[in-house]
TrEMBL record:
Residues 4-58 form the Acetyl-coenzyme A synthetase N-terminal domain. Keywords: ATP-binding, Ligase, Nucleotide-binding. It comes from Pigmentiphaga litoralis. PANTHER family: ACYL-COA SYNTHETASE, ACYL-COA SYNTHETASE SHORT-CHAIN FAMILY MEMBER 3, MITOCHONDRIAL. Pfam families: ACAS_N (PF16177), AMP-binding (PF00501), AMP-binding_C (PF13193). This is Propionate--CoA ligase. Transmembrane segments: none annotated. Belongs to the ATP-dependent AMP-binding enzyme family. Residues 511-594 form the AMP-binding enzyme C-terminal domain. One of its GO terms (biological process) is propionate catabolic process, 2-methylcitrate cycle. Residues 62-446 form the AMP-dependent synthetase/ligase domain. It comes from the Bacteria.
Length: 631
């Protein structure tokens, strides 16, 4: 495998040469003067002095050659809508959207919060922001009012774009009431709310603040809004992580580096070429949606398929029907979706012609071997795992088959991607672990283009969160455990922090704990993720009540449990609702007062809790076991 390894080596030894060459594959209004500025590590600036625009690279650049090719295919099995937009049509829609935003006072550097279901307007809105230099912050539609309010408070948007409702598995989920609640909760409300009315649910409008998209679209039908040429290091967007530490981190990305990184990923990993159709079954609220539903494919001139619906409605063959009908060449989703499909009759798969499909890509959580083997056999195509994070913006570990047919090893997402000086290091010293020895997955500075440039208005938190371990070495921590084999393949072994993954959705245990703690009866609470065959993980809560009287009877206990579940559902969304709330007299803690989450999780999953030398109350775990048996 000399070919790929040699290229990776070159990218690390001569980053300026490597990325300078890669940068020529996108359009620059002003080419960069300096490829890399690493004078102020861990802060890194790529393509200094360059001026470019993401929207230009995603749309305008392609107009001379392929104005009438399809840029965006939209399929909603929720509403039955299937449409296509050519690059020219997408260009027109984005120009209209940009003009509408300008008419509402949005200008360069303003934040625009996008709280939308999977509708084409979500992509138009993101691209329109990119066009005029507004910083978008897309918030996943599954988040409810409290989660939304904290993100509004952090990003302080001028404009929020939302809709009457989303729909999931045929059930209408109103968005507007949640948004109104969130705005009522937040400190600095937006000037305007732009509303896409899908006709799914009634919605109230606040006069003077709320405006409807459809009439404005008509008004700006012929608008032409030129791309604003942005400094390569200007912020393009903020995307919040799940927030293990309670307050979600606003990951900030640049413009030029992101464009170059995505073009590189599309070329080397996803092997997308004009004429290809990439179907990324994710949500625009997640990083995968940003990079591989919206920007990546379009920058590469690849058609993107945007999908609203579940993988099993109207039946388990829906995705394969789309592959056949639209000639999908790359399908990208999360292992959880495959686990859902696995429950379907394999015959449904065989009903469709999958000859257009070249590769199935999976990311976002560990890909277990049974799932990987099942789907590889079922579709008869390579299944390529890849590993990355909201922070990185594009894969950190992958099998980059654009160079050579690297072998796949099930259980490993592959080799470090070009540009990443990725190592598995000792948790304390940061020294590289020998092959076979478990350590933390880390990346030596400088991070490659496309990665986070900081946390929104919190440089100090960026440094203290990601760059402060390993005895002062300039190493970025991924907060994941890993192990590297003799061939350089990295295996991911789990997280060093506490995030749970419910059906592919990231939830910070801390956010759920905070929500439960807001209930008057609760003194203390611990939330852990426990393994669930279908959803990957579910949240399980252990709570201490303030006054034991409130759980004196079985009925009272059930009633309080229900109330607590509804509290979380209301504040954070249904996904975050714990599967059970178990009342306990005491929680296991370290002597320094930190919850021993990993021990709680082990007990909850019926495993050995391991080393307990730091535990304060040695009976705490037994009391936890008793409580679980009782309830
Ligand atoms: P937060 O950063 O707020 O705690 P999060 O880490 O869950 O949330 P993401 O950035 O969406 O949010 O997820 C990245 C994480 O997902 C990785 O750090 C890793 O734990 C896991 N992950 C992603 N891809 C893979 C993969 N292919 N194999 C194993 N784990 C993966
Ligand atoms: Mg993370």
């Amino acid at each position: 495998m000399a070919g790929y390894v040699a290229l990776h080596q070159q990218s690390i030894n001569d980053p300026e040469g490597f990325w300078g060459d890669r940068a020529t594959r996108i359009d620059w209004h002003v080419p960069p003067g300096r490829i890399l500025d690493a004078d102020r590590l861990p802060f890194t600036q790529w393509f200094v002095g360059g001026r470019t625009n993401l929207c230009h690279n995603a749309i305008d650049r392609h107009l001379p050659e392929r104005a009438n090719d399809t840029a965006l295919i939209y399929v909603s099995t929720e509403t039955g809508i299937e449409t296509r937009y050519t690059f020219a049509e997408l260009h027109a829609e984005v120009n209209r959207f940009a003009a509408i935003m300008q008419s509402l006072g949005v200008t360069q550097r303003h934040r625009v919060l996008i709280y939308l279901p999977m509708i084409p307007e979500a992509a138009f809105a993101m691209l329109a922001c990119a066009r005029i230099g507004a910083i978008h912050s897309v918030v996943f539609g599954g988040f409810a009012s409290v989660a939304l309010a904290s993100r509004i408070d952090d990003a302080t948007p001028t404009l929020i774009i939302s809709a009457d409702a989303g729909s999931r598995a045929g059930k209408i989920l109103p968005y507007k009431p949640l948004l109104d609640e969130a705005i009522a909760l937040c400190r600095q409300p937006p000037k305007h709310v732009l509303l896409v009315d899908r006709g799914l649910a009634d919605m109230a409008r606040t006069p003077g603040r709320d405006v409807d998209y459809a009439p404005l679209r008509t008004q700006y039908m012929d608008a032409q809004v030129p791309c604003v040429w942005l400094d390569s290091n200007f912020p393009s967007y903020i995307l919040y992580t799940s927030g293990t530490t309670g307050k979600p981190k606003g990951i900030v990305r640049d413009v030029g580096g992101y464009a170059v990184a995505l073009a590189t990923a599309m070329d080397l990993i996803f092997q997308g070429r004009p004429g290809d159709v990439m179907f990324t079954a994710s949500d625009i609220g997640w990083v995968v949606g940003h990079s591989f539903i919206v920007y990546g494919p379009l920058i590469q001139g690849v058609t993107t398929l945007m999908y609203e619906g579940t993988p099993i409605r109207p039946d388990g063959a829906i995705w394969w029907r789309l592959v056949e009908q639209y000639g999908v060449t790359q399908l990208f989703t999360a292992p959880t979706a495959i686990r859902v499909l696995k429950k379907q009759d394999p015959e449904t798969l065989k009903r469709h012609d999958l000859s257009s499909l070249r590769t199935l890509f999976l990311a976002g959580e560990p890909l277990d071997e049974p799932t990987a083997t099942w789907i590889a056999d079922a579709i008869g195509k390579p299944v390529v795992d890849n590993y990355w994070q909201t922070e990185s913006g594009w894969p950190m570990l992958a099998i980059a088959r654009g160079i050579e047919d690297l072998p796949i090893k099930f259980g490993s997402p592959g080799l470090p991607v070009v540009g990443y000086d990725l190592r598995v290091v000792d948790e304390t010293t940061g020294e590289t672990c020998p092959p076979g020895v478990k350590g933390v997955v880390a990346v030596a500075a400088p991070l490659p283009p496309g990665c986070m440039i900081s946390i929104w208005h919190d440089d100090a938190r960026y440094v203290s969160t990601y760059w402060s371990g390993f005895e002062g070495k300039m190493l970025y921590s991924s907060f994941d455990w890993g192990v590297q084999d003799e061939d350089g393949y990295v295996f991911i072994l789990g997280r060093t922090d506490d995030v749970i993954n419910v059906a592919g959705h990231r939830l910070g245990t801390r956010e759920i704990e905070e929500s439960l703690s807001s209930h008057a009866s609760i003194a203390e609470v611990a939330v852990v993720g426990v393994a669930d065959t279908l959803k990957g993980q579910v949240a399980l809560a252990f709570a201490i009540v303030r006054n034991a009287d409130v759980i004196a009877t079985t009925d009272a206990r059930f009633a309080l449990e229900g109330e607590l579940m509804r509290t979380v559902e209301h504040q954070l969304g249904a996904l975050a609702r714990p599967s059970r709330v178990i009342f306990v007299p005491v929680l296991p803690k370290t002597r320094s007062g930190k919850l021993l989450r990993r021990a709680i999780q082990a007990v909850a999953e019926g495993r050995d809790p391991g080393d307990l030398t730091t535990i304060e109350d040695t009976t705490a775990l037994d009391q936890l076991k008793d409580a679980m048996q009782m309830s």
